[in-house]
Backbone:
């Protein structure tokens, strides 16, 4: 690991100042569960770490309408265990608890979870080419090992997926991200935090260098049955092949409202707007659910090794919605 | 850039330790190399196996992913600190009683992780195995397996590890 200076930020403004003074090779440190590993692998090589884990963004604020303001330094385990989150936003708890291990959830922060990097094997192996890690070097995953990689929103330059479970639930919940910038604070819809790889996969997000995530806003509770379901290669402690965060409101046998987001299929948590639009007002039947899922996945452009994800995603969405319809009626 | 060093203070198994560390030093390397506490093991060094699990400010954590410098002021308990003198902790007793290990390499991490699991369960924390996350979970075998899934055992002693954690939870 390359030597680095370590500094602890006193305030958000101080963190931005320290970042700006670092001449590019600066990284913010949260829980370190991804960044420290990437530094050990030689993927990340910051000359300066600015520790933001002790900034006063360690609270979960419960608003009068049941909405949340989650500090960026809140640990994943504390958020998942929060009584109000469990009662009013169980989808968020479920997604968090399906991610990583008990140890890692105790260490990982909410901000760090959003900004964790892809687990694409080529990105994590510095002996291999990778356009995300080393722009212009190529994407061997397209011809190589891409079984776990993207089927939506990828590009000829990169087929990486975003690995977060929490972000998939937050996408379904219409969460917004608070970002401290040099000239003030911005609030960005979670969906707009991430960007498509296009011809520049090196940037995962729309944040500018030095921008600091300080929190996540979650609107008032959905008040409809919701569930996070994750398919992976082993029963626990593995990243998603495909996951779904869904919520369904049924009235008089028809879908009044729904939320659907997919994980493991794209370089971002994938909000399935097309499926949602196809479903609203339709009969709450397994046939409608499958048709809506198929409408969403019609845009999929899989590679030979991950074509299995298309029917898997369709089946998963249809199964979860069918379960939710059973609970709703 | 030359090596950067920093002064930190840690409480390790109840003793206050003042140390000067390379900023790159993981908590795991500090425990093993600087303090001679070789109970916590370096299995994968990537947070995937749990052999390095310690209790960090009372909560289980992977010491390999924790930078020592970022944990200045922390309270650390390793497997060497679980017992009260000669008296083993309930989790240690249960692992002995249920023969919950074979080669023993992952055992220190399993013991610290199980200790953390019992604390989390006592606080009513749910897991991915909890049907209704809003309810108070019962620590049954499915819950134990899920909660201990961050600790791998290549000997495959899982059946007895689950039995030991169940025993210690009683």
Residues:
């Amino acid at each position: 690991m390359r030597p680095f200076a370590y500094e602890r930020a006193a305030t958000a403004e101080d963190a931005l100042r320290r970042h700006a003074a670092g001449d590019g090779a600066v990284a913010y440190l949260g829980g370190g569960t991804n960044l420290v590993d990437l530094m050990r692998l030689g993927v990340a090589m910051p000359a300066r770490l600015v520790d933001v884990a002790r900034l006063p963004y360690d609270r979960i604020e419960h608003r009068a309408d049941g909405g949340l303001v989650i500090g960026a330094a809140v640990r994943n385990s504390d958020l998942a265990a929060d009584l109000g989150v469990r009662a009013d936003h169980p989808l968020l708890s479920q997604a968090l608890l399906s991610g990583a291990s008990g140890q890692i959830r105790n260490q990982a922060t909410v901000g760090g979870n959003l900004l964790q990097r892809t687990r694409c094997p080529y990105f994590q192996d510095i002996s291999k080419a990778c356009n995300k890690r080393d722009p212009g070097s190529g994407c061997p995953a397209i011809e190589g090992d891409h079984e776990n990689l993207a089927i939506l929103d990828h590009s000829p330059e990169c087929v990486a997926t975003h690995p977060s479970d929490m972000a998939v639930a937050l996408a379904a919940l219409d969460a917004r991200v608070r970002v401290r910038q040099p000239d003030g604070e911005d609030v960005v819809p979670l969906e707009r935090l991430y960007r498509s790889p296009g011809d520049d996969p090196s940037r995962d997000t729309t944040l500018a260098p030095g921008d600091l995530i300080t929190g996540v806003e979650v609107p008032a509770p959905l008040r409809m049955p919701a569930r996070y379901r994750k398919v992976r290669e082993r029963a626990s402690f593995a990243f998603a092949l495909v996951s779904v965060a869904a919520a369904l409101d049924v009235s008089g046998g028809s879908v009044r409202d729904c939320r659907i987001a997919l994980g493991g299929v794209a370089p971002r948590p994938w909000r399935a707007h097309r499926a949602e639009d196809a479903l609203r007002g339709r009969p709450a039947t397994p046939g409608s659910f499958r048709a809506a899922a198929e409408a969403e996945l019609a845009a999929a452009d899989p590679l030979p090794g991950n074509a299995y994800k298309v029917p898997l995603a369709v089946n998963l969405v249809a199964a979860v919605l069918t379960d939710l319809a059973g609970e709703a009626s | 850039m030359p090596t950067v060093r920093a002064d930190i203070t840690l409480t390790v198994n109840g003793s206050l330790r003042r140390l000067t560390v390379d900023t790159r030093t993981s908590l795991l390397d500090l425990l093993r190399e600087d303090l001679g506490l070789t109970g916590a093991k370096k299995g994968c060094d990537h947070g995937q196996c749990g052999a390095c699990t310690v209790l960090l400010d009372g909560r289980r954590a992977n010491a390999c992913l924790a930078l020592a410098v970022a944990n200045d002021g922390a309270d650390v308990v390793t497997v060497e600190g679980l017992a009260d003198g000669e008296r083993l902790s309930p989790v240690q007793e249960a692992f002995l009683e249920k023969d919950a290990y074979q080669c023993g390499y992952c055992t220190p991490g399993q013991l610290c992780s199980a200790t953390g699991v019992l604390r989390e369960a006592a606080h009513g924390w749910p897991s991915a195995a909890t049907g209704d996350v809003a309810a108070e979970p019962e620590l049954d075998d499915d819950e134990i397996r899920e909660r201990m899934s961050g600790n791998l055992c290549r000997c495959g002693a899982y059946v007895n590890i689950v039995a030991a954690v169940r025993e210690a939870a009683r």
Q: What stands out?
A: DSSP finds twelve helices and twelve strands in chain A. The domain at 226-328 of chain A is CATH 3.30.390.50 (Enolase-like; domain 1).
